[in-house]
Write a structure and sequence with these properties.
It holds the Pfam family TrmI-like_N. The chain is an alpha/beta fold and about 325 residues long. The protein folds into 2 domains: about 10-70, Vcp-like ATPase, Chain A, domain 2 (Roll), CATH 3.10.330.20; about 75-270, Rossmann fold (3-Layer(aba) Sandwich). It contains 8 helices and 15 strands. The model has no long low-confidence stretch (mean pLDDT about 90). Bound molecules: S-adenosylmethionine (SAM). The site of S-adenosylmethionine has 23 residues, from helix 3, strand 8 and helix 5.
C-alpha cells in the first residue's frame, strides 16, 4: 500500500534537495545511500527520520533543503516520451470531467503518464482507471513513472496497449464508464466508441493543442446527437512576483498549452429541449483541413533514440524506487 507523503523521511521516500545556488537533486532514500556532488557527500542516513522541510549539511558543510516532491514537481521533472498535460490543465480536466472518488475512468493516450497520476489520485483506491496507449514504449514510460511516484503499480490501474477505437469495446462493458479523457491528436476518431462506453450522464473531456482540433472535435461531438452541447475553454495561469513593494505579474509565462472541450452523454434516444443556434459553417469535410499529422499541427516528435533513452531513465528510476522500498 502506498504510504502517506508526510511525516519524517523514511527509506524509499523520494526527496527533492535544493542545494547551493538553488540546484535541484532528487534522491530515493536508502539506508546506505549517498549523494555525491563536487560540494561533498550528503548521507541519506542524515535525512532519514528528519521532518519534511529539514535543512541538512553535507561533508563540505554545504546546506540542502529537503522536501518530498509534490505531484506537480514530479510530473514536470519525470522522463517524458510524449508531451505531458501540465498541472494547470490537469487540475481543470479533473474539474470539468468531474472526476470523483470511486469513478470508473477511461483515458487515452497514456503518453508519459502525467494525467494518469492525477486521475489515480482523484479516483482513490475505490475507483478504476483504464488507460489506452497505442505506442508500447510510451506505455512503458508511463508505467515506470507511475510506479516511481506511487511506489508500486496501482492495482486499480490497467494499461491497454492498443488503439482506443479498436481496444475500448473489448475492454469495458457498454454504458459502464463514468468519465473519459482524450489527450491525442485526433480525438474525433474515438467519439463513437466513447459514446458506447459512457454511462448516461457521463462526461467526455478532450484536451487538444490547436484551435483547428478544438473545432473539429466539438463539431463531431455535436453531430452525433448523443451528447449535450460541447463546451470549451483554455486555462492561462500567470505567476506573480511578491516581494516587498515589488508585487507584480511575472515577466514571462506559459502562454499556451491546450484547450479543453467537454460534453455529457445523453440517455439513449433523448433529444435535449434546447439546441444552440448552429454556426454558419457547421461541419468540416476532410478536404477542409490539412492531413491531421503531428507535423501539420506543430507537434514536436521525439526521435526513436531519445525515446529509448527516456524508457531507460524511467525504468532506472522505478528500479531505484523498488530496491529502496524492498530495503524498508
Ligand atoms: C500527448 S500524449 C498524452 C500525454 C498524457 N496525457 C500525459 O499527461 O502524459 C498523446 C498520446 O496519445 C497516443 N494516442 C494517440 N491516438 C491514440 C489512440 N487512438 N489510441 C491510443 N493512444 C493514442 C499517442 O501515442 C501519445 O502517446
Amino acid at each position: 500500500m502506498t504510504q502517506r507523503p508526510s511525516g519524517p523521511f523514511r527509506v524509499g521516500d523520494r526527496v527533492q534537495l535544493t542545494g547551493p545556488k538553488g540546484r535541484l537533486h532528487t534522491v530515493t532514500l536508502r539506508a546506505d545511500g549517498e549523494l555525491h556532488t563536487h560540494h561533498g557527500v550528503l548521507r541519506h542516513a542524515d535525512l532519514i527520520g528528519q521532518p519534511d522541510g529539514s535543512v541538512v549539511a553535507n561533508s563540505g558543510g554545504h546546506e540542502y533543503l529537503a522536501l518530498r516532491p509534490l505531484l506537480r514537481d514530479f510530473v514536470m521533472s519525470m522522463p517524458r516520451g510524449a508531451a505531458i498535460v501540465y498541472p494547470k490543465d490537469a487540475a481543470q480536466i479533473l474539474a470539468e470531467a468531474d472526476i470523483f472518488p470511486g469513478a470508473t475512468v477511461v483515458e487515452a493516450g497514456v503518453g508519459s503518464g502525467a494525467l494518469s497520476l492525477w486521475i489515480l489520485r482523484a479516483i482513490g483506491a475505490e475507483g478504476r482507471l483504464v488507460s489506452f496507449e497505442r505506442r508500447p514504449e510510451f506505455a512503458e514510460v508511463a508505467r515506470a513513472n507511475v510506479e516511481t511516484f506511487t511506489g508500486a503499480e496501482p492495482g486499480n490501474w490497467d494499461v491497454v496497449v492498443g488503439d482506443l477505437v479498436e481496444s475500448l469495446p473489448g475492454a469495458v462493458e457498454p454504458a459502464s464508464v463514468d468519465r473519459v479523457v482524450l489527450d491525442m491528436l485526433a480525438p474525433w476518431a474515438c467519439i463513437d466508441v466513447v459514446a458506447d462506453a459512457l454511462t448516461p450522464g457521463g462526461v467526455v473531456v478532450c484536451y487538444v493543442a490547436t484551435a483547428t482540433q478544438l473545432s473539429r472535435v466539438a463539431e463531431y461531438i455535436r453531430g452525433t446527437g448523443l451528447f449535450t452541447e460541447p463546451d470549451a475553454n483554455e486555462t492561462m495561469v500567470r505567476g506573480w512576483h511578491v516581494e516587498g513593494l515589488a508585487v507584480r505579474p511575472d515577466h514571462r509565462m506559459v502562454a499556451h498549452t491546450g484547450f479543453l472541450v467537454w460534453a455529457r452523454r445523453l440517455a439513449p434516444g433523448a433529444v435535449p429541449p434546447e439546441v444552440k443556434r448552429r454556426a454558419s459553417k457547421s461541419s468540416y469535410g476532410d478536404e477542409d483541413v490539412e492531413l491531421w499529422t503531428p507535423g501539420a499541427v506543430g507537434d514536436r516528435q521525439i526521435t526513436d533514440k531519445n525515446l529509448r533513452k527516456r524508457v531507460r531513465e524511467a525504468q532506472k528510476a522505478a528500479d531505484g524506487a523498488r530496491q529502496a522500498a524492498s530495503q524498508d
